Amino acid sequence: MTSKGFTFIEHVILALLIAMLVRMALPTLGPSLSKLRGSREHAYVVSMKTDLVQLVMAEEDYFRDSLKYASAVRCTTPPTRGVLNFCPSRGNVLERPTLASGYARLGWWATMSNIALPNVTCAIFVGEVAVYPALIEGTPACRRPGWSGRADDTTGQIK
């Protein structure tokens, strides 16, 4: 008598072999998935930092034209006259630039967050007024909650 298919025992052995192979592959997949999550977070952070650098360039252009920094930011097409026209990337939320207090108003700062990373805040400043977590003028810096803000503390700082 000829058989045209696999027996039940052969199917069970094949299923066991596949299960053993999957079981051996799982430990190597875990770090890859966490690395993927980390790279996505890194992309959001880079997006926020890039937007803040572009905001600095837009503010400096505005300053060259009007000899003062803008406190109002709009994202309009065509650009609104008398306000800074700046559109952050999708998902990034910009708090309006805050002018430094004083007569000259030769400084400002701004912070940004992303809707996908609500616990990460990025900041940048220009002038004499430093804002947490930015430590160097014109250079954006980001942090997670729990970072003390000291230059030697890198626990919550995001590079």
Walk me through the topology.
Layout: H1 8-66, E1 73-74, E2 84-85, E3 92-94, E4 98-99, E5 108-114, E6 117-126, E7 141-143, E8 157-158
Parallel strand pairs: 1-2
Antiparallel strand pairs: 3-5, 4-5, 5-6, 6-7, 7-8
The helical percent reads 25-40%
* Fraction in beta strands: 15-25%
Radius of gyration: 26 Å
The span between the termini is 71 Å
The total domain count is: 1
By DSSP, the count of extended strands is 8
Task: Please trace the helix and strand order, writing H or E for each element.
Answer: HEEEEEEEE
| Total count of helical runs of at least 4 residues | 1
In short:
By secondary structure, this protein is of the alpha+beta class.
What does this 3D model show about the protein?
With 159 residues, the protein is of the alpha+beta class. It has one domain (44-158). The protein has one helix and eight strands; from the N terminus they run αββββββββ. The protein has one helix spanning 8-66, and strands at 73-74, 84-85, 92-94, 98-99, 108-114, 117-126, 141-143, 157-158. Strands 3, 4, 5, 6, 7 and 8 form a six-stranded antiparallel sheet that branches. It has a two-stranded parallel sheet with strand order 1-2. β5 and β6 form a beta hairpin. The termini are far apart.
Short key terms for the protein model shown above:
6-stranded antiparallel beta sheet, two-stranded parallel sheet, elongated, alpha+beta, 159 residues
